[in-house]
Design brief:
This protein is an alpha+beta fold. It is built from seven helices and eleven strands. Bound molecules: calcium ion.
Length: 230
């Protein structure tokens, strides 16, 4: 397995509220929100908590529990201080075990999957604009610049209960997974992401190129990318 991960502040934001991490086949990207640096706290709690998941038993249950634990940890922290009130975060999670991959997410951080020359988005954003796209009210292109594109319909830290779908797929050698925050997927077109994933071999190079390209397009948001090659 080859892995590269990087987070970048972008060119506009004063803070980087994204966080990412990985260990033993488990990968997490989180994009935090909330004032007074609370977004940074929320995304850090999410990554730290999810990476502690005990995946020795039922994997789907373990991932669900990890998300619930992260959700509670963020709510607890938010209740402790007014500065942290209303903080939350997205999470995009991948777990690879032999030829199986498990994918789950909350919010608008994404997991993409490249097999051969076919790129698939495995996650469906929990966002207002995605709801509008699904009902045909706006197009994917309009969603990119929609004034309410930052409104999430689900996030860690927003409700006591959490509902997360977990997807399981079979993988083959050479397959690639890309986890990212919306600083990448909301800026760089999917066709460009696909082109880079197919053209370049070295995961480090791909991650650097994608982040550089998002910055060339303005870098309006924090950008986080993890690339995993099976
Ligand atoms: Ca973001």
């Amino acid at each position: 397995m080859r892995v590269a991960g990087r987070t970048d502040q972008g060119k506009v934001r004063e803070l980087n509220e994204d966080a990412f991490g990985y260990r033993d086949g488990l990968f997490v990207v989180a994009d935090g929100m909330g004032g007074h640096q609370a977004g940074e706290v929320a995304s850090a709690i999410a990554v730290e908590t999810i990476l502690q998941a005990d995946l020795s038993g039922d994997i789907k249950k373990a991932l669900q529990t990890a998300l619930e634990t992260a959700n509670k940890a963020i709510l607890n922290q938010a209740n402790r201080s007014e500065d942290f009130n209303g903080m939350g975060t997205t999470a995009a999670v991948l777990y690879l075990e032999k030829e199986r991959a498990f994918i789950t997410h909350v919010g608008d951080s994404r997991v993409y999957y490249l097999s051969g020359s076919v790129l698939k988005q495995l996650t469906s954003d929990h966002s207002l604009v995605n709801e509008l796209v699904k009902t045909g009210e706006i197009t994917v292109e309009e969603a990119r610049t929609h004034p309410q594109r930052n409104i999430l319909t689900r996030a860690l830290g927003s409700h006591e209960t959490l509902d997360a779908e977990i997807l399981e797929i079979e993988v083959a050698p050479g397959d690639k997974f890309l986890l990212c925050s919306d600083g990448l997927s909301g800026t760089v077109p999917e066709t460009v992401i696909k082109e880079y994933l197919i053209r370049e071999d070295d995961p480090e190079v791909i991650v650097d190129q994608l982040i550089n390209y998002a910055n060339e397009l303005g870098g309006a948001d924090n950008i986080t990318v993890i690339l995993v090659e099976v």
